[in-house]
User: Fold Peptidase family M28 from Duganella sacchari.
Amino acid sequence: MQIKPLALALLIAVPATAAEPDTKRHQAQIDQIVKEISPVRIEATIRKLVGFRTRHTMSDTVSETEGIGAARRWIKAELERCGAGTALKVEFDSHIAPVSARISRPTEIVNVVATLPGTQAASVERMYVVSGHYDSRNTDVMDASGDAPGANDDASGTAAVMEMACVMARYKFDATLVFMTVAAEEQGLLGAAHWAEQARQKNLNIAGMFTNDIIGSSRDEHGKKDDTQVRLFAEGLPVQKENSDAVRTLIQTGGENDSLSRQLARAVKEAGERYVPKFKVNVIQRRDRYLRGGDHMPFLERGYAALRFTEPAEDFNHQHQNIRTENGVLIGDLPQYNDYNYIARVARVNAAALSSLALAPAAPQKVQVRTAKLQNDTELVWQANSEPDLAGYRIVWRDTTAADWQGSKFVGNVTEFTMPQSKDNVYFGVQAIDKDGNVSPASYPTPLR
Ligand SMILES: [Zn+2]
Assistant:
C-alpha cells in the first residue's frame, strides 16, 4: 500500500508508546529458585522439628534436645548456617507475654526472623513477609509437656519458610524479604501480633504478608488425595467497628473485591501458577476458615495486605490432637501424614510469588479516576513510581462479576491515560511494570472530583 504524504505526516506526529515488556516470560532467576526448593530438605527439617517432642509455647526452654527453646535455637542456627556468605540477617525477636486466656504465667515469646535486604535503593524500604509458626499444641491447648509433634501444624509452614530463606538468600531482589518463623500462634497469635505491632509503630512499608499454616497434607479425612492445588485465603473488607475512609471509598464505588489483600492474591495466583505448572492457587475470598484464625490476622488488623496458604482439605484427626489410637486409627499430627512433595510445591508457589513481587516495582500510588463530569470514557491518573528500571504502566480491567483481570493495555511511562470503556461497567486497576517484565499488583482507583 502507498501511504499518502498527509497520512505519513500524521503517523510520524503521533508519539510511539514504548513496547510492553514481555510480562509472560519466565525470569531465569525465579525458575532457578523454584527448581532448587527441595522436598528432601523440607522433610528433614520437619522431622527435626518433630524430634523436639513438643514446641508448645510454655514448654521447656532450657533443654538442648526438647521443648520450644531448643527448637528456636536450632531454627536460628540453621538459618545462620545456610545464610552464611549471603546478606541474610538472622535475629530473635523476643518479648514477654503477660498472663492471658492461653498464657498461664508471663512467658517469653520468641520469633526467629531472617531478613534479606533489597538491593535497589528505591525499593529497599518495601518489604514482603512470609511466615510459618513453629509452636505446636495437642488436645489441651494449655498442656505444655505432652507430646505435640505438630508435623503439619505447623512444622510444614516453618520448614517451607526456612527452605525459601536458604534458597532465596543466594539471589538478589529489589525489595526486602522477611522470612519469619513465629511462636505462640496457638496461644492467640501472640508472636505474629508482636512483630506486626512493632512494624505498624515504625510504619514499615509491608507491601504483602503470607502465612503458611497447615500446608502439609494432600489427603482429606476420607483418604482422597489432591496434590494439585492450595487454598489461598484473601480477605475483602476488614471487619472493624468503624470503617476507615479507604474502606468507605471501596464500599461506595463497588470495590469490595479490590482491597489490598485481594489485589495481592491476584498477583500471587498469577505468579504461582506461571512458575509451578499444573498446580492451582485456589483463591478463597474470605479471611480464613470458620472457627479458625492465623498469623495473617494481626497484619490485616493493622491495615496490611495479608494472605493465608492452607492445604485443600484438612483431616482434623491430624491436628491439635494427642497421639493415640482410636478404633484402629492412629490419631495425631505425625510426620507420616505429610506429603513432602506437596509441601515443596506450596513452597515453590510462595517463592515464585515473593520473587516476582520483590523484583517488580511497587504498586502505583494515588491511583484515581476523574469523576467531575458525566462521561463514558474513563480518565485515570496516578503518581509516578521512583524505581530506575521502570518501563511504564499497564491498565487492567474485568467485568464487575469476574474474579480476575480479563483485559490489559500497556500505556507507557505516563501518569494519566483515558480508556474508551466506561468506569461504570468494569473495574479498572493500574499496575507498574519494569523493563524485565515484572508486574506489580494492581491499584484500585479512587474517585477524583
Ligand atoms: Zn497452625
